[in-house]
Amino acid sequence: MTEKIAELKSRRQEAGRDFIALGIIASAILMFVGIGGKVLPEIFRNWLEMGPGPDPMLVNALLLNIALIIFGWRRYSDLLAELEQHQIAEENARALAETDMLTNCLNRRSITPETDSLINQANGAGKHVAFVMLDLDNFKQVNDCNGHQIGDLVLQTTAQRIKDILPGGSLLARLGGDEFACVVSFDPSHQGSVDQLVNRLIDAVSRPVLTGGQEVEITISAGIATTGANTSAATGALDAKCLLHYADIAMYHAKKQGRNRYFWFETGMEHQLRLRNDLEAGIRKGLTNGEFIPYYEQQIDLHSGELVGFEMLARWVSPELGIVNPDIFIPIAEELGLIGDLSGKLIEQALSDASQWDPAITVSVNISPIELRDPWFAQKMLKLLVKHNFPARRLEIEITETCLHENLGLVRTMITSLRNQGIRISLDDFGTGYSSLSQLQSLPFDRLKIDRSFVGDLAHGKGDSGSKIIDAIIALGDGLSIPITAEGIEDEATLERLKKMGPLKGQGYHYGLPESAEEVRARLTRLGRYRTFPPEGSAMQARIEETKHTAGRRNG
Ligand code: G
Ligand code: G
Ligand code: MN
After folding, report:
1. Is position 433 within any domain?
2. Which of 192, 382, 403, 505 meets the CB 3.0–4.6 Å disulfide criterion with 369?
3. Distance, CA 311 to ligand 3 centroid (Å)?
4. Are residue 465 and residue 354 in the same domain, yes or no?
5. Residue range of the domain that includes 402
6. What is the DSSP track for 143-201?
């Protein structure tokens, strides 16, 4: 590429020199006129024997002049040819800059001006323009699993399939990566034609791509924005840049809704997106500012009524939003890749809080399926336990049933290494995630937690199904010798029914809402189960020592 540019440059310089040559020719012609005007009449007169011959010096000068003009003319025609070539090369370079090399479509730079001129054309013809943003789903996986060459082939095939379907006069660009944009004009009275077109695109792209005996399956998500009323109602006049932005938002919405589908842009989406971006920024900021804190829900031995443990439940104390529940921020933290960090901080805080509690009280923590995929997870837990000098047998890790579908082998290894350290593992929300009996038998769980939906059914007297399921789970736990906790006990009646069903632990709002560390401290202090003397070396102990010391000096 650089060689080509250097060649173009040197040709341009040559052409510049040739312009000087052209100047010389012009002066040569002038001289020819001047000298010729004097010499030629003398020659004629000499021929007609009417006078003496011309001055030989002037004749030589005239001949030299003629030679110069011929030479100059040839250089000039060469120059014109050069210039023409130069122009062609420049045009080629411009075409290259406007084209996506892999697929031969337009690229991100050229789609905007091309769209703007299509909009102008359409406006003149009483038509509207639809901008369709298309993004392959999980394309990274195709690259990772099959290599970049296959990835490139998938992109080329996709581009070709889209081209085959688009009506004449439409635009197609690859904006980069696995993102395409097509722009079509349509009759405003047939908006349905855009839906039809996009449906056909989605169908065509999701046909498997055959590559050297392999089949690659791919789907696509799309967003549509048009110059018609539905997009412009709230936004006014639309140019290519706006359309691209709105189509992108609609495409993002399609991704969020589960991919392999399309959405028309609606103004609400922009609002949602802003909200989502604010949430993401807030979570990042909250993480560095320590805004995520543990709350604790009591766990009770149903028969003795004794407090035996707490389940730690994450809360986000946001300066803007107040107290936010984990079902809002955990999925976002997972998507942002922050869950390991967040969870680590929360668990560390919980261990630190719990070291002040009666050592008979256990702490349960929830972890996300994503953390189970971290090969260092067990290591990290061990490090935290050692750092806080916290006995592993007091820690219980809750994993939800849905984890088991993701990678049974990995989960088994993880559970085994956690249990080898002495940490206990419970299966959370049991009954909602369809784990099979064989999985239960092959995985060494220390506890099952019956999902609160079944426990809730008990009190609301929805037939006997609730109690039958709970009976079945209790029998299962008996058979496998796994103890059981019932979640979501909300009233005395439920508690009484559960008590009759077997030896259970339980938790729920009947015993109070989840509490902050401070409230737990007050509760345990009332019960005489809070350690008033902090463990040695703690910050509190250091402060007490210091106070004693200064008080001693003052007194002495
Ligand atoms: O507290 P509750 O309110 O809304 O909890 C909702 C869900 O969030 C529960 O299913 C619980 O398992 C989960 N959850 C609470 N805290 C944490 C946490 O620290 N990490 C993970 N991964 N999930 C949590
Ligand atoms: O990890 P898990 O999905 O089990 O999270 C427990 C969730 O259940 C938390 O959000 C907690 O606030 C909630 N919860 C705990 N006890 C009760 C209860 O008695 N009733 C209801 N509706 N929810 C409860
Ligand atoms: Mn739980």
Report:
1. yes
2. 403
3. 7
4. yes
5. 340-497+518-555
6. HHHH-HHHHHHHHHHHHHHHHHHSPTT-EEEEEETTEEEEEEEE-GGGTHHHHHHHHHH
